[in-house]
Design a protein that fits this description.
Blueprint (H helix, E strand, L loop, with lengths): L2 E10 L4 E3 H5 L6 H8 L3 E3 L8 H16 L8 E5 L10 H8 L7 E5 L5 H14 L5 E8 L12 H4 L5 E10 L5 E9 L7 E2 L10 H7 L10 E2 L1 H22 L9 E4 L4 H11 L10 H4 L6 H11 L8 E8 L3 E8 L1
Parallel strand pairs: 4-5, 4-6, 11-12
Antiparallel strand pairs: 1-7, 2-3, 6-7, 8-13, 9-10, 12-13
Helix pairs in contact: 3-4, 8-9
């Protein structure tokens, strides 16, 4: 058995910055209200007609591949995590294979685990490499939220939170099993599926023709719904559990963490976890203030920024953790 290591990282965010003050011009909100509840100061939104979920993923992937020091045609498999694909089907994985101009008809897998999608994607890629099936796997998390948000006062509780962006990692075979990805841990609890969800275009018991015929402007099934307090309460519990699960699996404790990269859901959640584990500010990396919640893209964007800022060095114990819609949650324990 091999280990897998992250050999290359990259991220991309649109240039268009949307501040809290910008949002206050289209809905009843303000900078203080948003920062107090989420910690967010600004986020990036795609300008219509420019980027797509796939194109952002490709741009992040190109940086990751270059930093991995391999040719794009050495990629053996693609894992693409998103809740906002370009099309209902096919998923963006195959579009990346096309748009990267890969010569080989390699496989592409789409992961629909929302905020924990990148963690799930890393776990899948890690298992493929551990088994010896593949040597280099490209994992992408990319989201284009802004085109599907209710940008009115009615939707402010959700719409102020989310931003657009993409991050990518190349996982490569590592023969030294003392480093790289040590373990991954995945969980779900579907009984709370509707507490953080977007019912359309799946429609549940309704059909596309029904909704078109209704043409009801008050139909909010097209917009994301979140039971914020309930999600928060579950998140802080599951974050703690799955981080400890990963540490204990490797005979480690919170004192061994050099860098925790949590999913950027809410700064208050990250601060709660930091305090619970007794971590210093330089042991936790947060960038939700700049980008908002980019769902499947949040961890790879934050991981890339932390690495670029030299906050992660060889030999460090790095922990990735996420919680989100599904409910699904997970962690990744890495010896860098």
């Amino acid at each position: 058995m091999y280990n897998s290591r992250i050999s290359g990282l990259g991220f991309y965010v649109p240039e268009n910055v949307v501040t809290n003050d910008d949002l206050s011009k289209v809905m009843d909100t303000n900078d203080e209200w948003i920062q107090e509840r989420t910690g967010i100061k600004e986020r990036r939104h795609v300008v219509k007609g420019t980027d797509t979920t796939t194109s952002m993923g490709v741009k992040a992937a190109q940086k990751a591949i270059e930093r991995a020091g391999i040719d794009k045609d050495e990629i053996d498999f693609i894992v693409f995590a998103t809740l906002s694909p370009d099309y209902y089907f096919p998923g963006p994985g195959v579009l990346v294979q096309r748009d990267l101009g890969l010569k080989r008809t390699i496989g592409a897998l789409d992961v629909r685990n929302q905020c924990s999608g990148f963690v799930y994607g890393i776990s899948v890629a890690d298992q493929y490499i551990k088994s010896g099936m593949y040597k280099n796997v490209l994992v992408i998390g990319s989201e284009l939220h802004s085109h599907g948000l209710d940008m009115t006062t009615r939707g402010r509780g959700v719409s102020v939170i989310f931003g657009d962006g993409a991050g990518a990692a190349v996982l490569t075979r590592e023969e030294d099993t003392s480093k790289g990805i040590l373990s991954t841990h995945l969980h779900s609890e579907g009984q709370h599926a509707e507490e953080l969800s977007l019912i359309a275009p799946g429609m549940g018991k309704r059909w596309v023709n029904d909704i078109i015929a209704d043409a009801d402007p008050e139909d909010t099934s097209y917009y994301p719904y979140m039971n914020g307090q309930f999600v928060f309460k579950n998140a802080v519990v599951r974050f703690s559990e799955v981080i400890m699960e990963g540490l204990q699996k490797n005979n480690l404790g919170p004192q061994d963490i050099d860098m925790l990269i949590p999913h950027q859901a809410n700064l208050r959640i990250s601060q709660f976890i930091q305090k619970k584990f007794g971590l210093k500010d330089d042991q936790v990396f947060n960038n939700i203030m700049k980008y908002g919640n980019t769902t499947a893209a949040s961890i790879p964007i934050a991981l890339t920024e932390a690495w670029e800022a030299e906050k992660i060095k060889e030999g460090d114990l790095v922990v990735l953790a996420a919680f989100g819609s599904g409910f699904t949650w997970g962690s990744v324990i890495i010896r860098w």
